[in-house]
Amino acid sequence: MKRIVHLILISLGILIFINPSASAQDTYKIGAAFALSGAIAVYGEGFKKAVDLAVEEINTAGGIKGKKIEIVYEDNKSTPKDCVTAVRKLVAVDKVPILFGPAGSSNFMAAAPVAQESKVVMLSAQGAAPALTKAGEYIFRVFPSDVLQGKGISDLCVSLKYMEVPIMYVNNDWGLGLKNVFVENFKKAGGKVTDEIPYDDGKTDYRTELIRATKGNPKAVVNLTYITSGAVMFKQTYEMGIKTQWICGSAAKAPKLVELAGKAVEGIIGTYPVFSQETKEYNAFRAAWKKKYGDDKVPIFGEYNYDMVYITAKAIEKGGYTSGGIQKALFEVAKGYRGVTGDKTFDQDRGVGSEYGVWTVKDGLIVDYKK
């Protein structure tokens, strides 16, 4: 008798082990290979807050056909190698049909082939490298390509009459791709690029690159930088007494950069994909953000990550919880959909368009630039 009871208990234990809880059965799992540590964790932390806000809203409103969304986060540690590992784990172990890819175009592009080969949908809310969606039909982005931003930076230099500039850029797929688009457009507009200076992200000293970039006292220097490395550079520029007009891209448009660099970034100028902050969608998002997190400081690209969750939820609702169904439904649900960041209709390359505005730092705040 004891043996029978023992066997029954073992069987129950096995059943409990292989049969997840009802709450787990009733969720739609979505993977997120975010940088939660490492050189660009400052981005991943903000992305997670935006995603968590959208998920909370959707789940509170009843989820997707009664089922809640569950985000399975994997730390990609800010490196291409670990991004690949994170995506493989989400695909093979968690078996998600869709996932949110890593920040940094090099990181995303390293991991995208894994998702494509597995026929798992992967979305980016900040990847801008033109080649990002070339990995295949399962790769999407809700953020505009650098083809648009590179021209925007060129147009900005021309409009400010900075026709001879050196350009500094992060030596990765994002930096190189954006630099190439800028140089091509700037030369077509009659501009002259006096030097091209690549640098590695995550260093603690950029004095050598800064001295080279400001040789001859150029009136302006284009710097395609991230938040952390940009903060180091601008602080060192300030300490060195270098005076020039710094022109950046959208990756530097972050309250965190101002927090880290302080007065050293006062007056820098940059471009960014522009969307109205006067719409009912944006006002609702801003109110929800403040209620949940207690401040108005939305992290860089936070709005795009928020929109990405809603589009994904709509695709699951329409296409079902399979990668093929989601992939097909994404085109349909995004067509004409107006999110916080505007129209999210996908083009034939599974990306979105945008106009570009100009930002600056004034009195410690990021504001729209006016001549």
Q: Your description of this structure?
A:
Helix content is 46%, strand content 19%. It is an alpha/beta fold and 371 residues long. It has a 7-stranded mixed β-sheet, sandwiched between helices. Helix 5 (105-117) links the parallel strand 3 (98-100) and strand 4 (121-124). Helix 3 packs across helix 12 (302-319), helix 9 packs parallel to helix 10 (255-261) and helix 12 (302-319) packs across helix 13. Residues 4-24 have low confidence and may be disordered.
Short précis:
The protein has helices at residues 2-18, 22-25, 41-60, 80-92, 105-117, 146-159, 173-188, 207-213, 227-240, 255-261, 280-293, 302-319, 323-334; strands at 27-34, 68-75, 98-100, 121-124, 139-141, 164-170, 192-199, 220-224, 245-248, 269-274, 338-339, 342-343, 355-362, 365-368. The protein has 371 residues and is α/β, with parallel strands linked by helices.
Describe the secondary-structure layout.
Blueprint: H1 2-18, H2 22-25, E1 27-34, H3 41-60, E2 68-75, H4 80-92, E3 98-100, H5 105-117, E4 121-124, E5 139-141, H6 146-159, E6 164-170, H7 173-188, E7 192-199, H8 207-213, E8 220-224, H9 227-240, E9 245-248, H10 255-261, E10 269-274, H11 280-293, H12 302-319, H13 323-334, E11 338-339, E12 342-343, E13 355-362, E14 365-368
Parallel strand pairs: 1-2, 1-3, 3-4, 4-5, 6-7, 6-8, 8-9, 9-10
Antiparallel strand pairs: 10-13, 11-12, 13-14
